[in-house]
From TrEMBL:
Presence of the UniProt keyword Membrane in the record: no
InterPro entries: aa-tRNA-synth_I_CS, aa-tRNA-synth_Ia, Leu-tRNA-ligase, Leu_tRNA-synth_edit, M/V/L/I-tRNA-synth_anticd-bd, Rossmann-like_a/b/a_fold, tRNAsynth_Ia_anticodon-bd, Val/Leu/Ile-tRNA-synth_edit
Name under which the protein is recorded: Leucine--tRNA ligase
Organism: Flavobacterium ginsengiterrae
Keyword Disulfide bond part of the UniProt annotation: no
Motif ('KMSKS' region): 729-733
Length: 954
């Protein structure tokens, strides 16, 4: 009976689907365990072998926990909104919902391309997903709840005093009773103070404008990354080297009215929460850096000959007497107001130039020094000396106040700037305010061993003393105060795109109004074009039916807008991260029509016990998810403060690219081992044209591209063309993609699963090498032969030997320890060792092979199910208890001693470990092999180390 993976795997995948084998229950007497993979985006390219790595790891763990008696929730769905689908729609004239559906379910798109479909690809790999809970963020029954959560954010404010969010109606009551003077809220800067009487006298529109300054989601004019080529705002992680990651279009900084979310309100809680979760230190550090907590002072500098002031946050108020100049971000609101006529042209040209660089690019570029003098001067708070005000792109509008009090003697970037512009436009000599420190070559940025000098009342003080005294003096003269600041900025929540969640918002007198929750979802309308309108409005500006009838409470024709009862709807859509900021909760109760999840389901599952995904989400997705979870906790909806208890970032599986080498100026290709000193052009070639011996299939290569059809070749001495190899990111553009479908078809999904786990530690990057997969396939065939020969099942009821039990229990312990420590690669090695040992022991004992099938099941579930069924069981192996490790089977009772004569080993003898030296010597001396070696002689000395060696000397 041969091992036939294709037949076996199709059988058991059908069985699991029909029997809903992996359906989790929301009420169970078993303990719960929630295992989650990061939300995949379903692209038309489908899966390559690098994508399933994390899914296989989470599946091994999920299956293991079921064997341990847990009620496991292991769901899967799709983050199906986003820019890629929209861009593909623009290019091909297809509807994004159509291409997204085909990408998930498979089929032929409008272009005639055959799409495998994510769902079918995932099913072929044999994952134990609870598919009954599948969610797609682009389905109205899902984004209905995203819209509802947005409304809750809009109707909430954050109380600093109590450290949590409350309903906006509570804030209105405070305003009605006592005004806002004593309110400790996270809100816009420069909120005007008003009394209760003033509030009560305001019009409804005036009140709404004020409340927008406090709401957790609000409209504001914000600096954004605008991409004219894509017609939309981009997040920082969608920009690479100043151009859009998708399409490579230029990106500029621009001010736009956008929806934003006050994630900054949760900065401290986001920091503190990192102490309570089991994440890698590198991911925690990424989040800490992104949040960027710093303690210092807010200092106010008056601008000479203006009514304006420049507010600066500094972590080093002790160095205030070292201020040599000030730098504003080019986008700072004050720049236009304080720039002198003489400097206007230079300033505007500089602003235009820097608008084309992203914030990330500016932060990363520490070598380029650039800036322009505004012509204005600020006044030093203490000395009253004039301080020149410059603009420079190393200062960001979105960080701090967008202004820097430059102390070159204590900061490297200020030092470089001051030296670069030395002697120009009022740039003074660098002033040294540190005693006994040489700054002739570099700034002194340390806070340690500092003694302040040349600083009036701060002379002789250290960093801590100087900081405390400087803040006290600033507060005394009304030009500063102590402050804790965060780098974390409020998140822009608008996108000028079509394929995203519509906002549940309409506008009355230009002010946003929320649509009542009972009328959700507000469904994305049909449009003819997915590009912005001719007058620059977002794509929804093309919708013919996109207005809100406040009487009928329905979406109606835009031609009916009268601003009396029918009003314009929001034209922007939500960003890609909206739906992925709460999706783990929807899995808990995926079919609930009335709420995103019931209280009972939320209470039962609580939070994700294990979350596996890529480290590229270290900041964006994970911060936004934690923010939404904390907000929903404040509202009594989420049961826990943190959404993900344990996080593991899987490493990337890299491709092994194949290269051919064309002689320069010719269409002749030379084999890698024949290049020598010849000048060649390396060209990537489809890896599917290359075999495991790195030999190129010439016919396939010539048929690949028209210009290769006439190619000539210089072969090696064996008449073969050998390609070069290089490990790179797996990508279609590198022609190094290997699909799991091909591997499953040839070797089976169990082989793929085992091989991906065998490649190396889960969290490390590792190259794919298809040549190595045959070894894993061979292992599975060898495993099969323990149970079957050509005539069928050969498992017997023989009592297992001591060696059989030792091999099994070694494996039980190793596999359990490895899964619990996520060291999956060493488990696969142990399986191979165990099967080799049992084969050499000629073991076919049911007492050994039944538990072995269970051990293998998390890794290779299809073959395990088949083995289990062939052993006579009628139910799935998936919830059979995991074998129990018994240490007694690993305790050595005997020792195989090497017996040496004058240091040379001549034979071995197995003896009990509890024998004394005298007993060992007696047995060895009586052994006929000893007598033969001695040939009648008596040894001078017998050296015995119990448990180690026996040596007869002389």
């Amino acid at each position: 009976m041969k091992y036939n993976p294709n037949e076996i795997e199709a059988k058991w995948q059908k069985y699991w689907a029909e029997n809903q084998t992996f359906a989790a229950k929301n009420n169970s007497e078993k303990p719960k365990h929630y295992v989650l993979d990061m939300f995949p985006y379903p692209s038309g390219a489908g899966l390559h072998v690098g994508h399933p790595l994390g899914y296989i790891a989470s599946d091994v763990y999920s299956r293991f926990k079921r064997h341990q008696g847990f009620n496991v929730l292991h769901p899967m769905g799709y983050d199906s909104f986003g820019l890629p689908a929209e861009q593909y729609a623009i290019q091909t004239g297809q509807r994004p919902e159509d291409t997204t559906r085909v990408n998930i379910d498979g089929g032929v798109d409008k272009e005639g391309k055959q799409i495998a479909g994510y769902r079918k690809q995932l099913d072929k790999i044999g994952f134990s997903f609870d598919w009954a809970r599948e969610v797609r963020t682009s389905n109205p029954d899902y984004y209905k709840h995203t819209q509802w959560i947005f409304i809750q954010l809009f109707n909430s404010w954050y109380c600093r005093k109590q450290g949590q969010a409350f309903d906006i109606s509570d804030l209105v009551k405070v305003f009605e009773e006592s005004g806002n003077a004593l309110v400790e809220a996270v809100c816009d800067d420069n909120v005007q103070i008003f009394t209760a009487d003033e509030w009560n006298s305001y019009s409804e529109d005036q009140k709404e404008k004020i409340l927008l300054q406090y709401r957790l989601t609000y409209l504001a004019e914000t600096e954004v990354n605008w991409c004219p080529g894509l017609g939309t705002v981009l997040a920082n992680d969608e920009i690479v080297n100043g151009v859009s990651e998708r399409g490579g279009f230029p990106v500029i900084r621009k001010k736009m009215t956008q929806w934003s979310m006050r994630i900054s309100a949760y900065a401290e809680r986001l920091l503190e929460g990192l102490n309570d979760i089991d994440w890698s230190e590198s991911i925690k550090e990424s989040q800490r850096n992104w949040i960027g907590k710093s303690v210092g002072a807010m200092v106010t500098f008056k601008v000479k000959n203006h009514d304006e002031v420049i507010d600066v946050f500094t972590t080093r108020p002790d160095t205030i007497f070292g201020v040599t100049f000030m730098t504003l971000a080019p986008e700072h609101d004050l720049v236009a107001k304080i720039t002198t006529p003489e400097q206007k042209e230079a300033v505007e040209a500089y602003i235009e130039k820097t608008s084309k660089r992203s914030e990330r690019e500016r932060m990363a570029d520490v070598k380029t020094i650039s800036g322009v003098f505004t012509g204005a001067y600020a006044e030093h708070p203490f000395t009253k000396e004039p301080v020149p005000v410059w603009i420079g792109d190393y200062v960001l509008a979105g960080y701090g106040t967008g202004a820097v009090m430059a102390v070159p003697c204590g900061d490297e970037r200020d030092y470089a700037f001051a030296n670069f512009f030395k002697g120009q436009n009022g740039m003074k000599e660098i002033r040294n305010i540190f005693a006994n420190v040489d700054i002739s070559e570099a700034a002194y940025g340390s806070k340690d061993n500092v003694e302040i000098a040349n600083s009036d009342f701060l002379n002789g003080l250290n960093y801590k003393e100087g900081t405390k005294k400087a803040i006290a003096k600033l507060e005394e003269i009304g030009q500063g105060t102590g402050k804790t600041n965060y780098r974390l900025r409020d998140a822009v929540f608008s996108r000028q795109r079509y394929w995203g969640e519509p906002f549940p918002v309409y506008y009355v007198n230009g002010l946003p109004k929320m649509i009542d929750a009972q009328h959700l979802p507000i469904i994305l309308p049909e449009v003819e074009k997915y590009l912005p309108t001719e007058d620059g409005l977002p794509p929804l500006g093309n919708a013919a039916v996109w207005a809100w009838d406040s009487v009928k409470c329905s979406v109606v024709s835009t031609q009916l807008i009268d601003n009396v009862s029918i009003f314009p709807l929001e034209l922007n859509t939500m960003p890609g991260w909206a739906g992925s900021s709460w999706y783990w909760m929807r899995y808990m109760d995926a079919h609930n029509e009335n709420e995103f999840a019931s209280k009972e389901a939320l209470k039962y599952w609580e939070s994700v016990d294990l979350y596996i995904g890529g480290s590229e989400h270290a900041t964006g997705h994970l911060l936004y998810s934690r923010f939404w979870n904390k907000f929903l906790k404040d509202k009594g909806l989420a049961p826990t403060e943190e959404p993900f208890k344990k996080l593991i970032n899987q490493g990337m599986i890299l491709g092994t690219t194949a290269y051919v080498y064309r002689l320069e100026g010719t269409n002749t290709f030379v084999s890698k081992n024949k290049i020598g000193d010849q000048k060649v052009q390396p060209i990537r070639v489809d890896v599917n044209f290359v075999n495991s011996s790195d030999e190129l299939n010439i016919e396939k290569f010539k048929a690949w591209r028209e210009d290769f059809g006439t190619a000539e070749f210089i072969f090696d001495e064996n008449g073969k063309y050998i390609v070069g190899r290089e490990v790179e990111k797996m990508s279609k553009s590198y022609y190094n993609v290997v699909t799991p479908d091909d591997i499953c078809a040839e070797y089976g999904a169990d082989t793929l699963r085992l091989y991906e786990m065998f490649l190396g530690p889960l969290e490390q990057a590792k190259p794919w090498n298809t040549a190595g997969i045959s070894g894993v396939f061979g292992f599975l065939k060898k495993l099969w032969r323990l149970y079957f020969d050509d005539n069928g099942l050969i498992v017997n009821n023989d009592e297992p030997t001591k060696d059989n039990l030792k091999s099994l229990h070694k494996t039980i312990k190793k596999v359990q320890d490895d899964i619990e420590n996520f060291s999956f690669n060493t488990s696969v090695s142990q399986f191979m060792i165990c099967v080799n040992e049992l084969s050499s022991q000629n073991c076919h004992s049911r007492a050994i092979l039944e538990p072995l099938a269970i051990l293998v099941s998390p890794y290779a579930p299809h073959i395990a199910e088949e083995l289990w069924a062939q052993l006579g069981h009628t139910t799935s192996i998936s919830e059979v208890p995991f074998p129990v490790f018994e240490e007694k089977h690993l305790v050595e009772t005997n020792k195989e001693y090497p017996v040496s004569f004058n240091g040379k080993m001549r034979f071995t003898i197995e003896l009990p470990l509890d024998l004394t030296k005298e007993q060992i010597e007696e047995i060895v001396m009586k052994d006929e092999r000893t007598q033969k070696q001695l040939d009648g002689r008596t040894p001078n000395k017998v050296i015995i180390v119990p448990g180690k060696i026996i040596n007869l000397v002389g």
